[in-house]
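Q&A FORM
Asked by: J.P.
Topic: structure of ABC transporter membrane-spanning protein

PROVIDED:
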Amino acid sequence: MNGLAGTGTLLRLALRRDRIMLPAWVYAITAMTISTGYSFGTLYGTASAREQFARGMNTNGSLRALYGTVYDAGVGGLTAWRMGAFGAALAGLMSILLVVRHTRADEEDGRLELVGAGAVGRRAPLTAALLTVLLADLLLAALVAAGLAALGQPAGGALAFGSALAVTGLVFAALAGVAAQAVETGRAASGTASAALGLGFVLRAAGDSDSRTHWLSWLSPLGWSEQVRPFADNRWWAVALGLLAACALAASAYVLVGRRDLGAGLLPRRPGPASAAPALRSQLALARRLQSATLYGWCAGFAVAGAVFGSVAKGAATLVGDNQQVGDILHRIGGQGSFADAYLATILGLFGMVAAVYAVQCVQRLRGEETAGRAEPVLASAVSRSAWAGGHLLFALLGSAVLLATGGLAAGLTAGATLGDLPRRLGALVGGALVQLPAVWLTAAAVLAVFGLRPRWTSAGWGMPAAFLVIGWLGPVLRLGRPILDLSPFTHLPHLPGGTVSAQPLLWLTAVAAGLAAAGLAGLNRRDLG
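REPLIED BY: S.T.
REPLY: Here is the structure written out as tokens.
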């Protein structure tokens, strides 16, 4: 049989399965890019203001490490600077998740074994997954280029920037294809490829922070994306470099897929003991076993992010300079304290929204266990449905607290070291991070309610943290009305550090979260599994 037989059918199936997730990813990255370009055009309306802003960025090593180097002071160049590293990282993450979803995850769940029993070639699933990502990245490039061109930016630079994002996504898609052949589980494949993405971001940041270590950025696909220099030099050869790397990795994945058995990986898992340890003989222990690795990875990310954002608290004043309009927006997002407090409160608010993504992921694991058939044998024993769901919910509630405490602690240590008064800064930032918990818990409880009452809609729960992020970050910039801003639970939280604390909104949010969680558990106890 032809190794690519059935690729077209699998491609149509993948596009159908991703008809919600794929457009959501593309739309989110495109909207962030276009809104960034619009904001730069509005807030820095003159060439002199943009030149001053660019000089401030390029003379601050910590900010260069975070965002990269400004190569062009126009609106397009500043947009490419602001969204280059983060946009490319998001495109890479989207590509990793799509490839693993249609290769190793399907193989782990037994879907590819059923599909492979028909007229489907051995390499068709991998090919369909890569083609799905190719279409997604091409659509992303086209929309980003069209959006920036609609803002009046040069078409060549807009196309170069869109191409840089797309090629970065293709590199990490091919890398995910290699990881899917090396390990035996979808989570391990996603974790391996995501770790490579994180390493790439670190290498790019280290290279941009100091001219003496600039060579490090060339070791990262994110660094190649930056070296395209859209709107400045438009280096198309850097795009070609990314394409060559993607082709080489994809070729490696095709070679490896033919050298292993279906369901196995090139790096097989070590078998565990025949009998479980006493610490693993409970439902809570099972939830800990399933969720702990994810929590450790998120903690590492929050620690790094907290340290980075806290370290630039002093230099972040360069972002504003004498631009009163930018300062007003930052104060609307982060409160009315000093500029440093408003900046740090804004970052802690972002940490809360990201922690909500982790909480949703923990709750979504319940639906994954149910649809994969792993929940049924557990519930056939002396384990109640409430206890089973409660174990995973506990990780959503306490795990998010651990994440926020970790991020606040890291930010407090670095901000205290740069701004002075370490004890006060440390306590204020840890407290400011933990005050986000009621809104995070409400988000997790809302998804649990959907899981218990309308399980088929559970995947739509990812829209909640995305909507809250859009409202919280774009709402103040666009001056949206209070009724719209109040739709996000994070809007009702105090802005710390620098703001005043009121217990009333915190108690109300916690009470609503408890009610939603109770409704979700009650619905789960009354409905059929599956």
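FOLLOW-UP: The radius of gyration is 24 Å.
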